[in-house]
Amino acid sequence: MTLLYTHPACIAHDMGPMHPERPERLEALEVALAGIEFASLDRRGAPLATIDQIARVHPRAHVELILETVPESGLVRLDADTAMCPASGEAALRAVGAVCAAVDAVLAGEAANAFCAGRPPGHHAEPETPMGFCLFNNVAVAAAHARTVHGLNRVAVMDFDVHHGNGTQAMFWYEPQLMFCSTHQMPLYPGTGAREENGAHGNIVNAPLPSGAGGEHFRAAMNQLILPALYEFAPELLIISAGFDAHMNDPLAGLNFVEDDYAWVTRELMALTDGRLVSSLEGGYDLDALVGSASAHVRELMGA
């Protein structure tokens, strides 16, 4: 069984007209995942994360400040790319809460795996810096939750978003029990993710791809660098930062993945963990490409 966590509050998060990280992303995904082929998904509402959960990776004062800054009306801009509307606080708490609840359910054996369709995304959020459309680092909180609440010793995050997950890397850098692996376009925002960025304990594995790279380059990077590192690390839980903006039709970058590449990498990652993993939505800004790619990803999760 595959779980699907989402919540209407995540649709209500809106950073303003013409912003690429828009509510329609989640609306389109909800329509697609309501189709008959996805009828067997166990659909669950994303709970609210607690400040205690988020404060495992973000300083408590920072978490409280972000939530206190949520406006009563209009928009509050946190940087050139990132803003909050009145609904953003609840949306961010639901996005984090979804991934933590998914970790609980998967580790309890309630399902083989889970897909968390939440907004805002999280992998750019650094310990004290919201950025790149992200407020809190959803997957880093979930990894800390797995270690603190469930006592896991080895948790890995695999990030195949087209943009490097600088926030997750920063939070994992000095943590030998955590591994962060990433494929991403480089050079590109946020400017991190060079091959030689390996973490304090060799627990960071970056496989940057040049503009124009497609599925052949992606699969080679996974097979030659990332999958061997993950197999050696032997995570007790794998969390995916599932960004679909490396698709050839995505407007924010220049990689050339197609839907089958996302299906392939999902199968490979499931084989590594016997299907036990938690996936959390990150980027993907062309609606058709997002729907097709995420559907391919979820379809493979359901085949566990």
Tell me what the CATH architecture is: 3-Layer(aba) Sandwich
What is the 3D form? globular
> What about the largest sheet?
8 strands, parallel
What's the CATH topology name?
Arginase, Chain A
Number of strands: 10
Q: In what range is the share of β-strand residues?
A: 15-25%
**What is the rounded Rg?**
17 Å
Instruction: Please give the count of helices.
Output: 10
Q: Give the tally of structural domains.
A: 1
From N to C, what is the helix and strand string? EHHEHHEEHEHEHEEHEHEH
The residue ranges in which pLDDT falls below 50 over 5 or more consecutive positions are none
**Helix share bin:** 25-40%
* CATH C-level category: Alpha Beta
Q: Reading side by side through the largest sheet, how are the strands ordered?
A: 2-1-5-10-9-6-7-8
Helix/strand class: alpha/beta
